[in-house]
């Protein structure tokens, strides 16, 4: 939560603390809270102002409640190492960076779009890529598989279960969708 919202929450709680104190004083038999409440609602202008303030408090209350109920989005991670001392995690985005670095080492790959999933057997890597038309598909895909697996295991410390590759003409596929 940002500093501004924390300050707003502080003020909101301070207002409710004051209201709770006034109710407590009224319950204890003090006449001041009732006198101030009568003054607050004595004129139409004061009633309108009180109603607007109450509406703002209700909106802030609903927002804070919704914000508290919705969990914060945490980045998707993969466990690298887990022991009694703790665990080491790496984000899926960092895994994709390692994959991109590995694929740059292979000649003939023009474009790549990686997708990564975690399974109990290890990492599942899906590569959607475009290669030069002059290159051999079996040779390039085998080089890409080996390089990606080696980089993920050596640089990332990850266990790779499978690397799947789909060779496609990514550049034309995007244009086909635009023209259709």
UniProtKB/TrEMBL annotation:
Keywords: Membrane, Transmembrane, Transmembrane helix. The chain crosses the membrane at residues 7-28, 48-66. This is Uncharacterized conserved protein YloU, alkaline shock protein (Asp23) family. It comes from Thermosyntropha lipolytica DSM 11003.
